[in-house]
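Q: Structure tokens for this one, please.
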Amino acid sequence: MKRLGVVGYGLLFFILCTSYPARIAQAQIQAEKTFIPQPASREIVLTGYTRPRTEVTLVTEESGRCLSVKADIGEVIAPGGVFAILDPTFIKHELAGNRADQARLTSEVTYFKKQFDRFNKLVSKKVAAMSDLDEDLRDLESASHQLDKLKVEERRLEERLRRSVVHVPPKWSWKVIERYLEPGEWVNQGDKVAELGRFDVLLVPFALTFEELKALQSEKVPQLRLPELDTTVDAAIARISPDFDPETRKIDVDLEIIQGNFAFRGGLRTELTIRVAAAGNALLVPQKSLLKAYEDVFLVRADGERVKVVLLGPAGNDMARVSSIEIKSGDRFLLSPGS
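A: Here is the predicted structure, written as tokens:
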């Protein structure tokens, strides 16, 4: 084999240098003339209505006549604030009698204790009988037990007095949804006096299929549109029911709205758009990539092989939905196969 001269090596190097970029350019052109079908999806728009994050029913823990109601429907009550005040007159009378009895028994306990100390000294000197000491000890213990019982009763009456003021639950602010109590009205223990709602966070319930739930969970920040307010807000998944409705075969999911530039209230219509895979393994392809021959429709691979597809319909933006069991993930086809 003859050795190449300097000129020969230079010519070979020139050919390699010029042909390699040409092959890269040709590959880029080829890639630009082809495409990879993408899985088609469909949008599902679900409607839900806002409601308070938490609702509670306020009941009385004491019986009595209502003296005043501090909030009307729609008004806000601070955490742990007062909703209504019941007349505590009879509880105060019982408490006063209890404390008077305590003062009397305290005096008796003091007296019996002094008596016990005196009899104890006399018995030790054998001046008094042991029975007298036992009797005084019995009186002292009886008075002490009665005093302890009155102290327990005092705490119970103080608690009743505290509960004659109807407070809302602590931690959050509450709005009055319904009010069932008026000043001067008599209420019994356990009667409903108001319905309260926590409106600083709004809840929106939806019923989703398992596929829709998976699509929702895949979104970083779900979006809710409020058509009447012409605005869109961020939402978050508040809770997902572990069960499902056997009739609809759907799962109850609650979204919550924490922030938004509008007045938070119940009954606002919201729309949740979920994108799920289209049925029948549908694929998205450019309209111009479809080759029609008589009644059949084809896609053409880069090597010229035709693949028959079923045309499902247009998908907008010059795209079409097709289906074929012969197309695998990553397959490339000509963007403009011609005739």
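A few notes: DSSP finds four helices and 22 strands in the chain. The helical segments are 6-32, 89-124, 130-163, 210-218.
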